């Protein structure tokens, strides 16, 4: 009986070692990057269809450069509450986060855009472009629910950190409008501090950095070159995705 027990023990250990080696071989022993967010990290409109995340989106470009396995869980159209709900309740997201070595987060643009098109906000923006002043800046931020957006991003980060101690790289908000768009100047004004009032990007930098994450500057990475946007679109082109990949890659390398 003792001999049989010994044989079974040896077999179980051997099988365990075999399973581990197979798993390592399948995954190439690579560390992993989990990308969370909306249509920006998804790579929306980079392909002929949008049935799956584009391999030309910045999470995969970072993965190629840093030799990381990438799992892109981004969903076009998602706002902060959609992502927070998924992280809190969806086991696919929770397990992916638990096993991640690095995490990128790009969310919030759709929260802003949902109110941006309202007649009230549009009217205030046109006034602000014509005559920028602190009162209008504050009113537009309130209408766009900027503080609530940043608070939602903080909740997302805290929920991620409850599942893992992996480094988190958060992208701030870039100006999605081309130079000839009537909203280009408005985007620049609203995404930068004005008359001592912090913009949403300053809030993201200040508030989230306190939560021990790295905030990277998507605004500067995308600014000043219309070729970084897909023609007649608010989404990054392949060139824009490359710029976003650069700042993300640099942040991840700082953790090495």
Describe this structure in words.
The protein contains 13 helices and five strands. The protein has 256 residues and is an alpha/beta fold. The chain folds into two domains: 1-26; 31-253, SGNH hydrolase (Rossmann fold), CATH 3.40.50. A five-stranded parallel sheet has the order 2-1-3-4-5, with helices on both faces. The radius of gyration is 22 Å and the shape is globular. Mean pLDDT is 90; it is low at 1-27.
Structure, briefly:
The protein has helices spanning 2-26, 39-42, 58-66, 80-89, 91-98, 109-116, 119-130, 134-143, 146-161, 184-190, 200-209, 218-222, 238-253, and strands at 32-37, 69-72, 102-106, 168-171, 214-216. It has 256 residues and is α/β, with parallel strands linked by helices.
Structural class: alpha/beta
Unreliable sequence segments: 1-27
- Work out the radius of gyration: 22 Å
What's the number of extended β-strand segments? 5
How helix-rich are the residues, as a percent range? 40-55%
First-to-last CA distance: 51 Å
How many separate domains make up the residues? 2
Q: What portion of the residues fall into strands of 2 or more residues?
A: 5-15%
The SSE order reads: HEHHEHHEHHHHEHHEHH
Overall shape: it is globular
CATH architecture of the largest domain: 3-Layer(aba) Sandwich
Could you say what the CATH topology of the largest domain is called?
Answer: Rossmann fold
Number of helices: 13
CATH class of the largest domain: Alpha Beta
CATH homology-level superfamily of the largest domain: SGNH hydrolase
